[in-house]
Every structure is written in C-alpha cells, then in structure tokens.
Amino acid sequence: MPEVASDEVVLKRRAARAAAAEVPEESLDLEETALGETALRTATVRPTRPVIRAKVVYLGGDPFRSAALPGRIMTETIEWKDGPDGVRVPGRSIKRVASTGNTSYVFQARDAANEPIASRIMPDNHPIIEVRGRVFDWTEHPDHAYEFANMRDPSSKRPEFQIVGDKPTMLLLEEYFMRRNRAKRDKKKDFDEISA
Fold first, then answer.
1. Average pLDDT, whole number, for the chain?
2. Quick one: pLDDT at residue 1?
C-alpha cells in the first residue's frame, strides 16, 4: 500500500503549489489525506447559469410573433433601506436563474393604437446589417438566449432570431453555449453506448 501523507503535509504541499502557480489554494484539488479521503470542490458540482442582459432580435416577418419559454429570472432583495416616509424599501438586490415558471417574449413593433414602439426597434444605423430596423425584446436568461439562437424558420430554415449584446455578455454566452453543447454531446454519447 502506498504511503499516504498526513493532513498537515497535504496542506503545506497545497499552499506551496498555490504559491508557485499564483492561484488561490481553493482552486487546487486536494490530495489524499491520512484517512484516504479527498474533498470535492463545490464549484465542480454547482451548475452555473449566469444572468445576462441581451437583446433578442426577431428576423422574421410575422408582426404578431411571440414566444413563451420555461424558466424565469428571480429578483431577491438582499438589502433594505429607509424610504422617504420611513417605510422600508428595497435597496440592493440580486438576480438568479430559476427553473420554475415561464417567461413571455413579445416581438411586436406596434402598440394597441398601431403606433410604432420606438424603444423596441433596433436603430437603422446599427453595425449589424441584419438587425437594422428589426423588433427586439430583452432577455436575462441564458437558456432562453440559447433557445432563441437555435430557432429556425420552418420554411426557409434560416435563423429566426439574432442575439445582440455587449462584448462581455457575448463572450459569456459563447462559453455557456459551448458548455451546453458539450453536455448534450456527452449525454448523446452515453445514451448511444447504453442502447448499443
């Protein structure tokens, strides 16, 4: 049986590796301790779905297009402050992705009086030519952005939506989409192996 280091030795090695790599100790995997046990970092098991802010631009021609997708963004107040009349009002809050409920998206360029809704139409001088003058709705849910990015027009098979946002948001979404696609491929591979 191989010799197993004591807990003290393991912690010293871990601190030395963290210092040499200039990374936090928490990011290093734990070595086997004297009890023969290791710890699983919670970051490896906790699914991360970032809250984003991006425009979902409708590229189709249906003037009454809408979509309802499962899941929503929950806002939770974490700090309260005193309002003008001594009444407690929400101060800081955090947003998180929730799997319950639905979110509705409406891609109508005109209101009930048939007037254009200027705040929901992309500018005519936008750098992305395909989205100029098109109607959009906001999304904060990364899974919804993923679904919209994969929706195709049934007849032409062309993309039905374009996701537009600032560079940090787009980089975050690209990384999130890659993780989702990788998970789908792995799940399909596992299913194929089991069913073969």
1. 82
2. 42
Beta-strand pair 65-77/161-164? unpaired
86 to each of 77, 80, 89, 90, 179, how far by Cα in Å? 18, 12, 9, 13, 47
Q: How far apart are the first and last CA of the chain?
A: 38
The closest of 161, 130, 158 to 54, measured between CA atoms, is 161
What is the helix (H) or strand (E) element at residue 195, kind and residue range? helix 167-195
Give the list of residues 6+ apart from residue 118 with CB closer than 8 angstroms, or none. Answer: none
Q: Where are the domains of the chain?
A: 7-44, 54-63+102-191
Encoding tokens for residue 73? 């963004």
Cβ atoms of 162 and 42 within 8 Å: the answer is no
Helix, strand or coil, per DSSP, at residue 46: coil
This prediction has a pTM of 0.69
Cα angle at 72 between 140 and 51, to 5 degrees?
Answer: 30
Q: How many CA atoms lie within 13 A of 91 on its CB side?
A: 8
pLDDT tens for 105-158 read 999 998 889 898 999 999 999 999 999 999 999 999 999 999 999 999 888 899
| Sign (positive or negative) of CA dihedral 3, 4, 5, 10 | positive
Contact assessment for residue 47 and residue 84, using Cβ atoms and an 8 Å cutoff: no
